[in-house]
Structures are given as C-alpha cells and as structure tokens.
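request received
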Amino acid sequence: MLSFKAKFLRKPKKKRIDITDLMMEAGDIIAQEIRGNIKRGTDITEGVSHSLNKPGYAKNKLRRLGHQKPLQAFGKTLVSKSSYIVKRMGINSVRVMLTSKGHPKSKTPISEIGAYNDQGTSKIKARHFFDISKIARKRIIGKVADAVARAVHAL
Amino acid sequence: MPFDDEIRNESERIFDSMRISIGAQASRTAITLQEFIEGQRVLGLSKEAIENLLLDDLANGGRIFGEFNRSLGLNIEGSLGQLPNSAAEIRFGRDPKRSKTWIAALVNTCPDCLPRHGEVDSLRNWEIRGKPRTGWSVCRKHCQCVLLDTSDVKGRPELDKPLIRTKVKT
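response:
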C-alpha cells in the first residue's frame, strides 16, 4: 500500500517515445536510394543513353565530334572512359572496345584500374558510384533531426 | 534464365540483405540515442542543451551518428561487394560441385581467413562454411579474399604472395 503522500505527490510518468521507427524510416530511404543506383546500373538498354554528359565533357565532345549527345550503351557494360578505346564514331553514337592490353596510354591492366575505382589509392579517393543524392541526404537528416527532437521533448 | 535476369534477381537478393543490415543498425542507433538522452537528463542537462548536443553530433559525425555513418558505409560496401563475385559466378556457371580455392590478400588478413588460404573445396561446401564478405569471419564485410577456380590457380605461384597494389605512373 502506498502512503497518501506517495500516492498523490508522485510525479506522473511520461510515455516514452519510441524513435526506432523514425530511424528505421531514415535507414529505408538510404536503402531505397542504393537500390535505385543498382537498378540503374543493371537496367542499361542497348542503344539508349545512360546519363547526360557532364558540361566539361560535353564541351570537349562538341569540339572534337561536332555534337554533344551522350554516349550510348553497347554491350551492356558499365565502363570507365579510361579503360576503353574508341573504335568508331557515328553521328549519335560512339562504339568503344575494352582492350585486354589495359589502358590505352598507361597500359595499366583493366583489373587494376577497376581496383583503383573500387577501393581508391592513397591519393585517389574511391568513386562513390553508389552514393546517395543530396535530396535524399536532406530527407534523412530531417528524419533523424525529427527523431532527436521528439525523443528529447518527450522527457 | 538469361544473364540479365539472374543479375537482377541477385541484386534484389543482395539489396534485401543490405536493407535488413541497415534497419538493424538504425534500431541500434535509436537505442543509443535514447540512452544518451536519458543519461544526460539524469545528469541535469536541459532539453535544449541535449538537443543542441545531438544536432551537433548529427552535423559533424560525432560519437552517435558518426558510428551510424561508419557502420552504414561498412554494411553497404560489404553487401554490394558481393555483387561482382556473384556476377562472375553467374557468368561462369554455378555448378555446386565445382572445385574452388580460397585466395586471401595476405595483407592484414584476419585470423579466420588466413588458415583458409589455398584451401580447396566444392562451391556447395564453401557456401555452407561461409564465402568471402558474407559476414562469417572477423573481418566481416572488409574481407578481400576471393574464391577462384582451382584449375585457374594451378601453376600461379604469385597467388601465394601478398597482394600489393602500387600506383602506376601515368
């Protein structure tokens, strides 16, 4: 039996807010973003542009080829532009070939170039091919900040 | 099944495993967050001070969210690292009886992987014992070991030496 004082003067216990769901939602956004990146990599259709050229590359292409249309996918292989040699240039397409001898200039084997791209070196950072977009990053930070605010103010 | 479809199925499988890892990490961070908030409150910090501390931790990758970021990177890198190996297996056939040799990088190799270097077993048995980067070993998703066809390994003494990557001058 609680005494009169303990019964009536006891602080009411606040309900503890579970922030796991909010954190899980933030995690799910990251997972969905990466899934999208993977799908984009595996869904390349032959003869269709993979992505738009970057401004500097487009400018260079315009100067050399007379147009700045993006490279089309042939052979359904994602390659770094350093690891292929150009075989034929059309009006709207460039046919490239992977060379077993390695990089056209340095003769570095393709497997080694792949390892640099994948893991980076002491000077070259690894390429963030699967990185998440800035919009998704903002959404994730928003969710986490919301979780923090809710958990703190539920005390 | 065509190669493209198999790759898509494989990437979906890897994605599901990655999502489970990310979810578990998010739950763990939520518990750490709750523990931190309640602990600081007991010590007498105001709500505003706790919130500022946590938002600062979020912005600068401090103890709580920095750990979350690092483990996320590890999970994602490790999960996606399975994709090239799986793609190679799909391309060259997944015969469970195919003889495979475990090749370790031999540079900072973990105590779990080191005894396996040069060991020969069937693909089916390696799947049961744990393939590289599947999380069975101490190095977990950092594993740099590979399973190569035993026929490809024969007569290649360089695979018994540590793997050293040097930057090529261009």
